[in-house]
Fold this sequence. Notes:
single chain; mainly beta; Methylamine Dehydrogenase, Chain H; Immunoglobulin-like; five-stranded mixed β-sheet; four-stranded antiparallel β-sheet; 2 helices
Amino acid sequence: MKIFKRCILLLLVLVTAEGFTQTNWVRQPTLFTENLREIYFADSLYGWIAGDSGVIVHTPDGGNNWITQSRVVNDYILDLFFLNRNTGWATAWNFDGISQYSVIYNTTNSGLNWTRTLYPDTVLLINTIYFLNEQKGFIGCVNNGSGVIYYTNDRGLNWQKANTDSNFVSTFPVRTIKFKNANTGFAAGGYFDVSGVVWQTTDGGLNWTSQTVGGEPFNCINYPAENVILISGGDYEFGVSSAISYDNGTTFEYHTNGFFGIGYSTSFRTPSEGWVATGYSQNLLITTDTGKSYTLIPSPDSSSLYGITFPNSNTGWAVGNDGVIYKFSSSTIGMKNLLKNIPNDYLIVGNNYPNPFNPSTTLDFNIREKAKITLRVFDISGKEVLKIEKGELQAGSYYQNINMAGFGTGIYFVKVEAVNREENFFEVRKIVMVK
C-alpha cells in the first residue's frame, strides 16, 4: 500500500508539472557551492542566507551584492532570525566527527561580527531560535529528557526550561517557533510517521500546551490573515502536508496536499498568495486562497529549494542546494492586478469543475442584480488568452462552459467581471488544465 501511494504522488507531480514553468523567479549569480537552507530579510534591503559549512552571507542592498560573514566548516546552520537590521541570531549543529552539539550565533551589528557560543548542555540539540525583543528569546529542541522549549530573559546568557503540559506528544521535537504578539505564540514539530504537534502559549512563553495535529511533523508557521494560522510540513512517503486554523489556534484542519516533497519553508506574498519550498522534490507549491488549495509549479532549473521568503509583495527570495539563489519579481509576470480579488455579495463565483480538466471545465456564478458579464482567461504570465462576453444578464444563477482545446497544460486564471450602472465587480478563480 505504501509503494502504491508513493507512485500515485509521483504521478501527480509528473502530470501536474508538465508544460509550464515560472518565469517570475530569476536565478542570481552562483557565488557559493554550499547547500543553502535558511533565508531571512529584515526588510527589502537587509537580508541573510545560511546553510552548510556554517556559511552566512549578507546583502545590504536588496541582493545586488552578497558578502560572506561566517564560515565554520563543521557547523550546519538550521535557523536564522533577525529582530531588525542589526540584531540577529542563528542556531547550528556542529559535527566534529566524534560528537555533535548545538551552537548559537548572535550579532548586534548586522553580522559584521558574529559571536559563536557552544550551548552548555551537550545533549541538547537546538532546531530553531526566536526572539521577542533584545532580551527575551526562545529555542526549540530535540528532547534531551527534560524539555523541548527553553527561554531566556538576558539575551541568551542563561536559558531556562519552559513549562509544557503532560501530553505524550509535548516532548516531541520542536522545529519552529513564531509569536503573534508579546503573549501569544505557537511552536510546531513532531516525529515522522508518528505525529505532527502544535504547541501554544498565551502567557509570553512561560507555559505551553500541546496537541496532536495530523500524522507528520511541521517545519514552519505563518500568520497570513486575521485569526488564520497556517503550518506546513510533511514526510518522504506521503508528501507535503499542512494544518490550518481559522480560529486563532483553537482548532486545526490537517491536510495531506497530494504533492511529493516536504514543506520546508512557506512565505506569503499577499494575505492570500503563499509559496512553499518543498526541497528535494524540485517543485514549488503556490496557494492563492490562503492555504485552502495548492498548485504545483516546477522549481526553476529543477533546483531543490529549501528556504523562501517575501520581504514585501513585490519581491521574494528562494535558496537551495549547490548555492542557488533566486529572486522573485511580481513585475516579471504582471499578475499583481489580476490576482487582486475584491470579495462582495453582488457577484459570487464558485469553483470550476472538474479541476484539473481537459479540455473543458464549468464555472458557476451568481449575480444579485442585472449586470453585463464578461469572462476573461489569463495564462500564468498575465496574458489574456480567451474572452467570453455574456452580455447583460438578469439577477440569478448561471454556469459557463470554458473550452480550452488548443491550449497547453498549465495554470490559468478566470476573471469574471460584472458591470452595472454604478460599479464594476470581479472575482478570480485559478484553473488547471492537464493534457
